[in-house]
Structures are given as structure tokens and as C-alpha cells.
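We were asked to recover a plausible sequence for a given structure. The inputs and outputs are reproduced exactly as logged, with field labels preserved.

PROBLEM: sequence recovery
POSITIONS: 86
GIVEN STRUCTURE:
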């Protein structure tokens, strides 16, 4: 079991140097969850411009999917389909 101090240190380390807004943090968490850190700026921009509900639904869809080749590609496809529904 980790102490609270260790958890906060790990979060600060994974958060990034210039993350100061909530949507930036959400974009970074998306990038980490999709294992696509090279495109983290894309996820930060999406977190700022796209409805949060759409992003969360697409991320949940990817998480529930079984063995996928590219989580990022599946996420973008699902996000596009959710945006066209609304």
C-alpha cells in the first residue's frame, strides 16, 4: 500500500512540467491511457475543444475493447462517431 505522499509524488511526476489547467491534465491522462504520448498535444487540444462527455465515452469504449492494435486510432474513430450522432 502506498502512502499519500508517494501517490502525490507519482502524480506530480506524470503530470508534466507546464500543466496548469484542468483540461491540460485531462488531455495528458488521455494520452497516458491510450499509450500515445507522442501526440499528447493533440489530446490536450481535444480536451479543450471537444465536449468532455464525448471524450469520456470514447475513452471508456477503448478501455472496454479487448485486444486492439491501436488504441489511439480506435479512440479517434469512436470520438468521430459520437460527434456525428449529436
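RECOVERED SEQUENCE:
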Amino acid at each position: 500500500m502506498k502512502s499519500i505522499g508517494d501517490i502525490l509524488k507519482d502524480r506530480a511526476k506524470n503530470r508534466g512540467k507546464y500543466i496548469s489547467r484542468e483540461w491540460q491534465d485531462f488531455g495528458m491522462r488521455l494520452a497516458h491511457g491510450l499509450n500515445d504520448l507522442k501526440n499528447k498535444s493533440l489530446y490536450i487540444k481535444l480536451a479543450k475543444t471537444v465536449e468532455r462527455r464525448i471524450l469520456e465515452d470514447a475513452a471508456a469504449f477503448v478501455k472496454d475493447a479487448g485486444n486492439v492494435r491501436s488504441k489511439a486510432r480506435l479512440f479517434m474513430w469512436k470520438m468521430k462517431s459520437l460527434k456525428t450522432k449529436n
